[in-house]
Amino acid sequence: MEITGKIIQKLEPQSGTSKAGNAWKKQEYVLETTDSAYPRKVKFDFFGERADQYVFEVGDVITLSYDIESREFNGRWYTDIRGFKAVKVDPAAAGAGAPAPYPAAAGGPAPAPAPDAGMAPVADQPPFDQPGAPDDLPF
Questions:
Q1: What is the Cα–Cα distance from 45 to 7, expressed in whole angstroms?
Q2: How far is 63 from 33, CA to CA, in rounded Å?
Q3: How many degrees, rounded to 5, is the angle at CA 26 between CA 58 and CA 4?
Q4: What is the DSSP letter of 7?
Q5: Residues 6+ apart with CB under 8 A from 56
Q6: Is 130 helix (H, G, I), strand (E, B) or coil?
């Protein structure tokens, strides 16, 4: 899965040693989406060697490829968003892919539907409320 947004916070790096004796490290970031009318904040991390491979600063706009994983520990569930690839995006181009708001949401009226090209105007018939108007009702 992919998400595009701006890095709004870089958290402190974490590292340690597993029960098996293996060293690990993790770098967490908070990204704010830029591709919708309602921005969302998403905390994600890079784990292991990717923590050194992908280094970003606050204000960088990126497209993040990620996996979501949940795990249970002591009867509680925890969910991680783990990045596996990230690409810096030009901030000017990031907004270009955003969907345009609906005309009514932008404050203007909705556009009128286009007239049907197959329908010809009925100008040679008298209005329906005048004597001599055609009656097409079945009763």
A1: 12
A2: 10
A3: 45
A4: E
A5: 7, 10, 29, 62, 86, 88
A6: coil
Pick from 50, 83, 44: which is nearest to 66 by CA?
Answer: 83
12, 24, 49, 75 from 72: Cα distances, Å: 25, 20, 25, 6
Global confidence as pTM: 0.63
Per residue in 18-63, pLDDT (tens digit) is 999 999 999 999 999 977 889 999 999 999 999 999 999 999 999 9
Q: What is the pLDDT of residues 83-114, one digit of tens each?
A: 999 999 986 664 554 444 434 444 445 555 55
50 exposed, middle or buried (CB, 10 Å; 0-12, 13-18, 19+)? middle
> What is the dihedral sign for C-alpha 21, 54, 34, 9?
positive
The residue among 68, 7, 57 whose CA lies nearest residue 34 is: 7
Please tell me which residue, 94 or 128, carries the higher pLDDT value.
128
